[in-house]
Amino acid sequence: MFRFLVRRTLGALVIMLIISAVTFWLFYAIPRDPAMMSCGKNCTKPMLEQVRHNLGIDHPLPVQYWEWLKGIFVGRDYPGFGHCNAPCLGYSFANREPVLGTILDRLPLTLSLAFGSAVVFITGGVGAGMIAAVKQGKWQDKAASSASLVASSMQIYFVGYIAMYFLVGKFDILDNPSYTPITENPGAWFSGLLLPWLVLALIWTANYTRMTRSQLVETLSEDYVRTARAKGLSRRNVFFRFAWRGAMGPIVTIFGIDLATLIGGAIITETVFSLQGVGRLAVDSVDKSDLPMLLGVTVLSAGAIVIINIVVDAIYAAIDPRIRLA
Amino acid sequence: MTSTDQQPFLSIRDLKVHFSTEDGIVKAVDGLSFDLAKGQTLGIVGESGSGKSVTNLTILGLHDRDRTAIEGEILLDGEELLTASEKELERLRGNKMSMIFQDALASLSPYHTIGTQIGETYRKHTGCSKSEARKRAIEMLRRVGIPQPDMRVDDYPHQFSGGMRQRAMIAMALVCDPELLIADEPTTALDVTVQAQIMDLLKDLQQEFGTAIIFITHDLGVIADIADDVLVMYGGRCVERGTKAEVLRDPQHPYTLGLLGSMPSLHGPVDVPLTPIPGSPPSLLNPPSGCRFHPRCAFAEKVAGGLCSGERPVLEVTDGRGSACHLTGEQKQELFADFAGSRHH
Description:
- Chain A: It is found in: Cell membrane.
- Chain A: Its main location: membrane.
- Chain A: This is ABC transporter permease.
- Chain A: It is a multi-pass membrane protein.
- Chain A: Belongs to the binding-protein-dependent transport system permease family.
- The structure holds two protein chains of two kinds.
- Chain A has helices spanning about 1-30, 35-40, 45-55, 60-75, 100-135, 140-150, 155-170, 185-220, 225-230, 235-265, 265-270, 280-285, 290-320, and strands spanning about 75-80, 80-85.
- Chain A is an all-alpha fold.
- Chain A has two domains: about 35-90, no CATH class; about 100-320, MetI-like (MetI-like fold, Orthogonal Bundle).
- The mean pLDDT of chain A is about 90.
- Chain B is an alpha/beta fold.
- Chain B is built from 13 helices and eleven strands.
- The model of chain B is unreliable at about 1-5 (pLDDT under 50).
């Protein structure tokens, strides 16, 4: 287990390095000068140089990358902004705020959105998939299959606005989407995010229903499930301890990836419900050629994916003793 | 069949198992009857798809009830199994009747230790504690000849060798001292030396506990080793039955004769070519008319009036001996002797 953690952590760091370097390089491959945007309309050459210097982008690319990297571990001094404590992800080109602070401001909303909807779609999807698999070929199965087909072909921007119009506007069943920190008012946190959770979860629920069903249909016909029945174990016992155990692995894997993706920001959902999360931040920073912000968000998303993958592998090994962590 | 009791331990009467599939109705078992006494071993022989495995899954009630139509009766110790409730069957399975499956690697759960899998059967039926179940599992592993059972009990199936897995499977099936044991090709996937050990083990356990065994195989050598009586199945029907000596030494059905002909003999000259049965097993979706073996039978045209393709031969059993074939006794004597003769030249 220890060896596994050490190896995977080192691997994760390498991946993060590569991702940040590629992002850095890609950003400058775009023919857009962030200093130009920051400098404004009547920009003279010396002014431009000054802006470059202030932003810390007056060095060759490798040096800039090294400075950025160093900043994370030991902090960094900016000519324009002064000292930035480690871990320093730099200052936004656009609003001159510290990148880390901005991301940490946005993160609670994104995490609330991600975990809240994950709870809905994993319980709903796996539950519906289980029912469909047990009632194979019966009306429950057909209902779950058709519903998930319809739901998975929906789009958030479509369902989102429709739901807003009817559930919030016309019938006033749900609250207008908004974000209140859970520490401030748990009730408002819940009611404000309920609609985004449900809408975001809808499509994912459909995917998990289908995945759970197909996994279970497969494991239910495994020989070892038949053996368990031949031993006189009850249907319930056989279902959960044998068939579901076998079906879980791939679902956990996909769930990990999906959750990590959501932590990187649910861009469309945030946009539809006017929520200021990490996803919106990423889109805005691309728009504004805001390299430090973009790098920060990218590294955060990559980090979430990498860490969750390690956790998933550990869970996978706990589910299936044939897999050994190394 | 050799039982002295009035009521045989296991009695199957005119069993029919029909599956509905998308293509139509599959008549997997089509009118099968047999009895089995305690302490006896019945060998069921047949090709894949002959209905032998289906019959035994039906005894345990492990068929898909939604898609299967079943007729006939299965009496275990006087108890009707076909109409028994799921709860009732759960009480019997693994306890009074249990089953050893063919592929032990696929049939054992990869997610649970050998000890858990053996012990949970015992716990389910005796209601004992976890530690008692574990003790019992170790005892069973020792009995089936697993070395260091107190350590191996915590292993997973993938840490066992093929032969050991099959032994563990047998330990699991026998943990509650079942009175009926169904062994579905338990040695097919094993090499011959291990196979012989497993057979000896089953015989020992049978002697010890007087278990009735149904032994399913397509290997006549195995049958010769373990069975008291033999039932030959073809296309979902019994085509021949009798004691082991009767069926193997004096086959009365062309299919049995064909099976014997496709098996090498250790006693004759070594360079005698085997005689395979031509063709392939019948489709049970659309089985051949009359005798289901007639399209592959070497002697079908010897019977006058197209009887073989027109009429189902009746299995008439006297004293546990019978065959379902339109050939007359004299015809068989003559033709079968020729067939046997041709093998020796």
